[in-house]
Each structure stands twice: as C-alpha cells, then as structure tokens.
Amino acid sequence: MTRVGRWIGRHLILFAGLLVLLYLFAPIFVVMLMSFNEPKSKLSYTFDGFTWENWQHPCRPSGLCEAVSVSLRIGLVATVIATALGTLMAFAMVRRRFRGRSATNLFIFLPMASPEIVLGSSLLALFVSSGFGGRLGFWTILIAHVMFCLSFVVVTVKARLTGMDSRLEQAAMDLYANEWQTFWRITFPLVFPGILAAALLSFSLSFDDFIITNLNAGTTVTFPMFVWGSAQRDIPPQINVIGTAMFLLALVLVLGGELARRRRNARVR
Amino acid sequence: MNLTGSSDLVLSGISKQFAGHRAVHQLDLTVPQGEFFALLGPSGCGKTTTLRMVAGLEEPTAGTISLGDQDITGLRPYKRPVNTVFQNYALFPHLDIFENVAFGLRRRGIKEVRQKVGEMLDLVELGAYGKRKPTQLSGGQQQRVALARALINRPQVLLLDEPLGALDLKLRRQMQIELKRIQTEVGITFVHVTHDQEEAMTMADTIAVMNAGVIEQLGSPAELYDLPATTFVANFLGQSNLVRATILGQADGSVVVDVHGGKITVPVPRCRVTEGDVWMGIRPEKVFLAPAGSEEEAGSNVLRSAVVTDVSYIGVSTQYLAKLPWGQELTVFEQNTGARAALKVGDSVDLHWQPSHTFVLDAAQDALAGVEDIADDAG
After folding, report:
1. What does the pLDDT average to over A113-139?
2. CA Rg, chain B, in Å?
3. Are residues A175 and B104, on separate chains, in Cβ contact within 8 Å?
4. Which CATH architecture has domain B9-226?
5. How many CB atoms lie within 10 A of CB B251?
6. Residues of A in contact with B77 (CB under 8 A)
7. Does domain B241-369 have CATH number 2.40.50.140?
C-alpha cells in the first residue's frame, strides 16, 4: 500500500500534466472525430456513424471551399504586407532615434489592447464615411487584417532585434562587409526566427478572425463567417475536415521545424 | 602588407563629444608601424572610444586619423585596412568557426579561402574546430577565433578591445604570451586597449596611459614605471608612496627637498617641478627598511623614526606598512631572500633609498588619483 502511495506521489505532476493536456486537446480530438461522422439529421451533434465520405468530398457543402479560399488568400496577402511593414517599423524603432519614438512605441500596443468589436465597428464607420460603403469585401477585409496583424509583427520582431548584439553588425562592417552585406549576412539571418514567428502569428490571426471581418466583409464570406453562418442552420461535417486539416498542417510545420533544428544541431556536434 | 615603414597610425587633435560628455579630448598620438601599442586606463577614460574611432565605428567630433599617407578619418569601417578583436569577441552565432574566420576573405572576394582559413586556424591551434558553432567553444577558444578572424585579413593595424577581459587569470597569462608571439610573428601593428596595467606592461612596446579623455603619459613600460609624470600614472601603474614635501633649492645637479624636517635629494631630471610644494614619490620595492639608527649607504635618502604597523607575508615577498612621525603610512616591499630576520609590528625602523629612484611631482595633483580605479576594475 505504501509502495503504491509513494508511486502515486512521485508521479503526481505527471498526472496533473496529462490532465491539463487532455483538457487542451479534447476539443481538437472531438473535431477530428466529427470529421468522420455520418450525421443522421442536419443538426446532429452526436457521432452517428463512421464514414470517409466527408474527407473524400470536402467541398460538397455549397460555399465552404470558396470561403476557405477567400480566407487563405486574405491570410497570405495580409501576412506578407503586415510582416514586411511591421519588420521595417521594428527596425526603425529599435535602431533609430527619432521624434515621437516612445509615443509610437505606446500606440503600437493600442490595436492589441482595444476590443475587437470596437476596432471593427470604427473601421466600418471609417470605410462607410469614406465612400467604401457599397464596396466592402476582399480589400476592406485585407486592410483591416493588416491593421491588427501589424502590432503583433512589430512587437515580435522588436523583441528579437532588441536581444541582438549590435556589435555583431559592427564586427561585420569591420570585416569588410558593407551595409547591404551586413544586413543580409548578419542582421537578417539572426532576426529571421522573429520574422518567421511574426508571419505565422499574422496568418493564424488573420485566418481565424471573425469579429472585425464580419463587420467589414460586405457580401464576402470567409471561413470563420461560413462556420458561424452554418452553425445557425446545420453543421456540415466537412467543417471539421477543414479544421482537422488546418490543425494537422500546423502540426507538421511545427514538428518539421523542430526536426530540422535537431538535425542541424546533431550535425555540428 | 606594407613594408615601407610609412604606415604609422597617426591621430591628430582627435576629440569625441557624446551628448553632455567629453569622451576624448584633443588627442595626439603616433603609433609606429609594427609596434605593440597599449592604451591603458580605467573604464570610462576614453580608450575604447579612441579605438572605435580608429576602426571607423565612431566618428570623431574633431581631428584627423591617418594611416601612412592615407587620411582615413571619414572612411566607412569596411574601407579601412584595420580589423578589430572585439570585447566579448562578437563572433557570428549563426556561422560556424570556419565561416566566421572566412568572413573577411569572402567579403573581399579573395581566393583560396579554404587553405588560408585552415592555416589561420592552425596558427591559433583550432584546426579541428572549423565545423563547430561559437557557442560550443570555451572562452579561450572563442578568443582565439576572434583573433584569427581579424588576423586572416592581414590588416595594417589590429585593434584589440580588452581581448582578454573575459578569461580567467591562468588563461589570460597564457594568451598574453601567445598574443605577443603572434604579433612578433606577423609584424602587424597592434593597438591594445586594456585597464589591466600588468597586461599592458607584459605585452606592449609602448604604453599610453589615458585618464579622463587625455593621455597622461606615453612611453615604454620601464620608462613609465621608473619615472611617472603624474600622480595618476604613479598610482595606476603599480603602487607609489607619495609624501608631501617642499623644495629648498638645487645643489650639484640635484634638487634638495624638505620632507617633514628630513632632507632628501632628487636628480633634477627626475623632478617635474623644481620649486614650491611637491609630492615626493618612491616605489615600495625601492625602499629598504633598517633597524633604527643603523648606518646607511653614503648618499642614500633617509626618513628616520618610523614604526612598523603591519606585516603581510606574501611568500615571495613581505609587505610592510611603516608609520612615519607625522602619521603617514608608507608601503615597503621586501624580497624574502632570507638574508635577515623579518621585522615585527612595533619595530622602530629607518627608511633608506637611492636618490635616483626618487621622483618629484606637482603638488597640485591629487595624491590618490588612479588609486581607486584599480580596485573598481579589478572585479
């Protein structure tokens, strides 16, 4: 009895950890499971039977794949623009002394701190009052997404850049590298992990966003809006297919990155 | 490499002003080609700023820097035939050792990179480490990579910014000898910035002692130690006993000085001032302690009626504190040759030394200048 007690005592943290993981992953597991569901009625939330049908025909519900495509396109373009702009801003704010630098530092946090519903509705007011009222859609969503991704990019890249020793760049200049070579050979490779993290964050924020998008979308439908819309009427199991696929994609990216890192480290040992 | 002997590094009238703070003031300096030159001073004295101006990483507020016939004052760092070994090395963490060392060659489009880097890594005894990353090396190894990375470019001047500061004492000694050997071997001008006087004395041909943005004194280690020009140099380079005194007059090429009633003589060339109030200086190891009243060598300087107040046995030597009648304690080092029994606390003693070891400094200077600085930097 005492032996069992001690064994439990020693593994208590493990149990707690497993419970937390279970708590975190249970919803994802449900999504995966439901992607193989064969619902008996349109509004079924129970697992009625197994089928490959949903995975074979993910585009069957009308509008689903169009919505996913819109979200992907907006996500990619917004990521590229926000990452490029935000990286430049971060460089300016870390490397340059200019008037209003500390004010900019403060303002950059505002979009992150403001409630989305406020940002969304004020953006809508802005768009409508500047004459975009009838033309809400891809471009207004894109502008909105770049706006809220920008802060996250600036903050992420800035953190990386601040942690970088500026003597490395001086050493490169001392070793005959001009400004251009110094940037591409030293600065960029060292800041790149920060830029990549910022880009991934931007994409997931953009792909995921509902509130701001919904207010500024006009008749355009993104994936989160499609899910919301169909939740009112019926839940096509294909939504779970898309969700599972996105999750697996993220998982592959993370695992792949980790494996590549380990292989690199193993090689130099 | 330039063999004409005309590539001396010349700084003239160099000043550097930072916001509200004068780092370097009106500095004139000539470093002859091929010399091992040390800029020695406490932290904040402007020595690193001076080095960075030579490297092109800092722009002088006034003055010019030239290398041989070429004015390099306005040149970008990558246009100067000068390389730097940075404090804490600044190795590129994302490149392996080979690529770190090859960096300068590749930027200048030089061929045979593989062979040259191999040779250079062998020179610093890191031939087998080319594939490692900087973080996988010890401090001493990183230091040698930083040296190799700069030396491989065969610069006309190599700048070293406290290159041994991060190493432990034993390794530092080893690297001092190594650096000196490499400098002699490659014949490149080395400008070495340090706050460690022992390091500067061990390696440098010439030392410039800097304090508060100006050069206090310039000369060979022996010259500086033997005849310091200011109280700062007297205290920063080794230790000195400085005693308040008044000059009485001159006789036979010597200055006669009154030290609290005792008369001592100092050769005229060893006096910075020859009248009025002065500091009389003597190095602790130049003083002999003798039992009170014993006969001194003819012509010696003597201060009588001192009492031993402290005895510290250091092994190779013994360090005494001797209190003089006016209350000041002087430091005396004596080699433990075993020629006589050690003195004890409370013994009455006389202090003797050669007039030619005495020096006289301006009394307007602070007798403690340069003293605390050593203690501050020692950590």
Report:
1. 90
2. 24
3. yes
4. 3-Layer(aba) Sandwich (3.40)
5. 9
6. 170, 173-174
7. yes
